[in-house]
Amino acid sequence: MSTPRFARRFSLALALSLGLGLAAMGQTKGNVVGTTDVGIWYCTYYGDNWANWGEMGYPPTLYRPLCSSQPGDYRAYNATNAAVIDYHLQQIAEAQIDFLLFELTPGGLGGYRHSMDRFVDNARVVAKRIKIWNDQHSWKLRYAVAAGAHRDVYGNEPIGLCMEKEAQDVYDHFCNNPEYGGPTNYYQLDGKPLIVYWGDRNQNTAAWNSYTGDKTYGNRFAVRYAQDVVRGSYGWNIYSKGTVLDSEVEVVSPGWGHYSRATPPYVSRQKGDFYSQCWNTVLTNPRPKIVMIVAFNDYLENTAVWTADTTLLTDADKWIGPDGKDQPSLYWDLTIRNIRALRRGPTADVSTKGAGRDTQER
Fold first, then answer.
1. Which of 20, 71, 105, 278 has its CA at 20 to 30 Å from residue 248's CA atom?
2. Strand extents, DSSP E, the chain
3. What does the pLDDT look like over 170-224, one tens digit per residue?
4. How many distinct structural domains can be found in the chain?
5. Is 323 among the domain residues?
């Protein structure tokens, strides 16, 4: 695969001009030094049967994402399908996204909740494909891991012990794994590999800070947290108020949840307007170190932005644009457009006008 146009190197002068007062941004590990990095949550749940998620407890998945550059190739796919993964990585790199955050919060790390091991195994396949991508292209993709620190994972064990054991697993078998490119391909923040723990954010923060057991591996990471979108959180579910300003990380998301789910509250996509409003909050304020997109391919809680046929959906908004028509690539078009605006510097609001072209037509 040849190196695409988007991968041309930025000049140092351009990189510095995009810094917008973020002199400390060298502490991240993106492609353009001194600018805001962009990360995106990436899900590896998917097997051959999209109607049954075992212990996950979700209704059948009715999204049919675009799986190749072939026009109309909307279908279910297996998360270990190398051709689909490579197409994802090509599109993510073309969008100038810096890193993927593997969504492994259901379990499977550190010896916990083995029923979820397959999600971790699927992520290993993606990590291998990232190494292959980086060996052949100048726009580098890194990855990091989001682990679970919640009752379904740690059970009756101390939360801090769970976090330490998961950190050891990620450090030994992901970050330092030469088959995945070792530390070079693992995303770093403040000079350490990033790990994000999903669960009760306040409880987990307190549990880790007060844990008196061995923290050898956890201390090797930049430890961050996710639960809902509040200041300093890396995700997951967003509220109707949208993006929350923060100097380190700001989360953008197209919406969240199911019509039939009472809590957390459903957040409508509003024909792309909600996602645009999230990005506009980022673009019209001082830049954070990281913009975190929730999510590339989350078809269980309806936060996906990657191109998909949504005409079968019944429990969440179909992807309809301002013109009232189905627009499979609406949210990916908006993602690309807003990242371009982020790279350029200060900008006015970026609307949904003109979005919705099929991705393969670019």
1. 105
2. 37-42, 64-65, 99-104, 142-148, 188-189, 192-198, 222-228, 236-237, 249-252, 290-293, 308-309
3. 999 999 999 999 999 999 999 999 999 999 999 999 999 999 999 999 999 999 9
4. 1
5. yes
